[in-house]
């Protein structure tokens, strides 16, 4: 019943990133790669080494910003790292029928689409599997995993791409991901609820978290709003308040290592309380669609913790208590 209850509440879970280079048999028609180099972000302490910089006009930089703003690979980069990405990308104009990458080749660049239509093909029969229509990115798999290209990408129309070489891509993206994972692993280790997770499960959770900051007095979530995710406090204090006849009343003060926002995700109800930054606050944000996939294992711990929430209505109380009783009967 617990499993059915979870399925009823959550649906199918995290859908993951948008479609990227498709995974195919990496050993089919594989030839030896000329790129034998490896990159170890833990061993790289040089932040001041030579960086690729391609000068751009204000108009070019503005166009590039518009092209990369929705690329998920870049969402965890800070402002300085994002400027490095913009500096390192160069324009590539293509004509209809040009091949951008070919399956089995060594990876040289990562590409972001500014304009044009591009089709992805795989296999010896070049089966069409995806079309990029004036947006998106491709080419990251070969660079991230040091493997041959997994698909062929051909321009269907004239177009404009922005490209970044493999070394810069690996240094910026992998080093950023490594630092982010280490930082969030330390944060998650301090959350008692997550002690039951295996190390690799905490790593997956750390990789899914998105950094957010809020200024003193800023409202983080609003009572009555639909839930978009939950929050782990990285630094600062958060005041939890509920609306009553006389105004908002503080019911809890949370600090580093604590979390909030999970109740609305578990119950699929609107937010039961508001949250405010008491001082400058840094949080790690977990989106709704990834919540069940990554935290389903500790859902039972969450449910037991929710029994202490004083601001939930009777229907939610009943749902939580029934789920906890069912779980306890299974344990016995």
TrEMBL record:
Domain Cyclic nucleotide-binding span(s) in chain numbering: 73-190, 193-312
CDD domains (UniProt xref): CAP_ED
Keywords, sorted A to Z: cAMP, cAMP-binding, Nucleotide-binding, Phosphoprotein, Repeat
Family: Belongs to the cAMP-dependent kinase regulatory chain family.
UniProt protein name: Cyclic nucleotide-binding domain-containing protein
Organism: Aedes albopictus
Phylogenetic classification of the source organism: Eukaryota, Metazoa, Ecdysozoa, Arthropoda, Hexapoda
